[in-house]
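Protein modeling request. Please complete all fields; requests missing the sequence field cannot be processed.
Requester role: graduate student
Desired output: 3D structure, C-alpha cell encoding
Chains: 1
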Amino acid sequence: MTRTAPQLLQDPAESWELHCAEGEEGSHYRGVYDVFPRTPRRAEDVPEGALESLNASCSLEGLRRVFVIPRAVRSTGCGDQKVMSPGSVLGVGTRAVGLWTEKPGRGVKVLIPLDRLAAIEDLTILLYGRLSFLSFAGKLTIRYNTLARSNLKPALLELRERLAGPPLPLPLEEEEGRELPIKWKRLLRSPHLRFRESAPVAFRFAVAPKKPRDDVEYGQLLVLNPYELVYIRDPLEASHNYGEDTIIVPRPRITRVRVREKHLEVVANGTRLSLNMTPELREVAARWLS
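Delivered output (290 residues):
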C-alpha cells in the first residue's frame, strides 16, 4: 500500500515526546502511518501501571475505552526534525480523558477532566489521523493510521454524547437551497455531524477561495445540531480533498462568539478557538449562536 503523507504538515512535538537525533531512529522509525491504537482484550495486555493510573484519574469503564498506542518516531514538519513518541495508553473515562506514557518516567502525562474539556479537533488526511482534546489548560493529542479509525469512533461518539447536555433549539431559518457536492451530502447524513441520521440540524455550506497555483476548491460545512457546533472543512494542509478537518464544540460550553477579520472566535469553557471560515459562514455562525 502506498503511504501518502500530507505535504509539509506542521505537526509540532508534544511536551511528553522525546527529541530524536539523526541516526537514533533504529527499529522504532515506524512513523504515524504504522500506528494502530488497539483495545486490549485483557488487563495483562496493557503496559504495567498504566491501567491503574488511568483508572484512578479518569474512572474507566473496563477496557473498552482504553487504547494501547505503540511507540514511533515521527516528523514534526520542521525541516528534518523528528521526535520519539513513547509507547502510550489513552483512557477515555467517565471523569476525564488521560494519556499515560512509558517515557520519560512512567505515568499520566496529560489529563483533561470532562467538565473542563472545551472542544474536540478531529483531522484526517488519507492515512494520517490526528485527534485532539482541547481545554484551557492544554490539549491531549494522539496520531494514528486512519485504518484504525473504526476502533476509535465508538469512544469518540460516546464521549460527545456525554458532553452534550440537554438539547437546545435550532435557528428558525430555511435550509440552504444549493445542491451539496456528494462528499458533503454524505457527511451531513452521518452520525459524525448529527449523532443520529434522522436528527435535525441547521447547516450552511461554502467554498473557500482557491489558493494561488492551486486548482482545488476547499469546502466548508457549518453545522448546528441540538447539542453541538460542528465545523468541518477540507484540510488546508492537503493538496486534495481526501480528508476532513473537524472542530466539535458542545453548545452549553460556548460563552462567546465574535466575528473577526479572518476567522470566527468561539470561547468555550474559557478556551479561545479561532475557526478559519468564509465571511458568509462567520456571519451565519454568529447569528445562530448569539
